[in-house]
Amino acid sequence: MEPAADNHTGDPGNRSEIRDFLISRRAKLTPERIGLPTSRRRRVPGLRREEVAALAGVSTEWYTRLEKGHIGGVSEDVLEAVAKALLLDEDERTYLLELARAARPARRRQRRKDVKIPSAVQWMVDSMTMAPAFVRDGRLDIVVGNALCKAVYSPMFGSDTTGDRGRANFPRYFFLDPGSRDFFVDWEEGARATVAVLRAEAGREPHDRALRELVGELSTLSPDFRTMWASHDVRIRHEGIKRLNHPEVGPLEMTFRSLDLPLPQRAVHDLIIYTAEPGTPSEDRLKLLASWTAPQTSGTEPSRPPN
After folding, report:
1. pTM across the whole model
2. What pLDDT is stored for residue 7 in this prediction?
């Protein structure tokens, strides 16, 4: 299956991303996983280019060009074959296809920095009084959050990393605020997932100037971010268990789910909802936080612990 000649060499803006991603995935794929003999001495880990090319049904020359970032105009069928040869998971496969779409001339345009969130979305989030809920954009800013979300993430909202706009940003808090390591029980796992989600957004929107500036800032200021970013791991959706050391109510363990929230201007936003298991101490602590954030009609406010 040799692809047709490609007149588009790919956007230089994301050519290095394509190259580094494919090289990193090839390096992770051992001969044993695909049934190749392992007796021959190998100078580098992972498969050789000619081995990947053979598995994908293309010439070594063509695959070499692809691995150099010349992806514009390549059909999805060919990319699917390469993804299969490299044993990419679903998120990695989606990321490769997004890199190819972003390299096409029609996609080479600046995305809007900010998208106005409809009032109905804010109303929906505010109505969830017993569940922390927020809307997160592709750069992992919290653009809309309910009162309980702000109470749960009070250390992040109160951090200097929120910047002039007052928006909490997960990557900045994880990597630029030392307090994040105490707040997030599973700091490293959460940090790696945060970087992987950010990497997926960079593949989808390589011309987002604000995103590039965020990655540049974190790469400059955080060795941990640089190391994790260089791994080229990607994650389209992040959900599971969140464990926090809350400064006012103590340990919190919650399940969180992510729902797509389509908005205009191709903006990718997620609605994130947290819940605690019924009957657990975490539910009691979440209820206590909710009681502090609920509107008071009696003129009295539930007592909070002393500072």
Report:
1. 0.85
2. 43
